[in-house]
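Today's session is about reading a structure prediction critically. Students often jump straight to the picture, but the first step is always the sequence itself: look for stretches that repeat, for charged clusters, for runs of hydrophobic residues. Only then move on to the predicted structure, which in these notes is written as discrete structure tokens rather than atom positions. Here is the chain we will use throughout the hour.
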Amino acid sequence: SARGEYTGGVIAPGIEISVEALGVRGAQLRKIELARPRSVIGKNTVEAMQSGILYGFAGQVDGVVQRMARELAGPGGDPDDVTVIATGGLAPMVLGEASLIDEHEPWLTLIGLRLVYERNVARS
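Below is the predicted structure for this chain, in token form.
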């Protein structure tokens, strides 16, 4: 929020869980290497799975971010005023494909923990 408060979030299955689920539960599918496919339209099973993972997650990120930005902006607000920060080990995979990510901060969780620690030390 404008006051620095956490207002909520979204939890969804991640890239690795999805790849694992396809390999374990998909008929005749195996676990694949996470890599950028040659094109969106896969020419074989592995490329089709890689494409589905990469572009599917980029679309998921953009779709969820778009809805959250509209909700946060409220009536008459500007959804473009929302800053979107990608974090996590596989964020670099979707950075070039998800159009609504503003920044990439791989250490966001650790930065947050440091801030919490510093605020608590200052109070004691």
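Discussion point for the tutorial: Helices lie at 15-25, 45-73, 91-95, 108-123.
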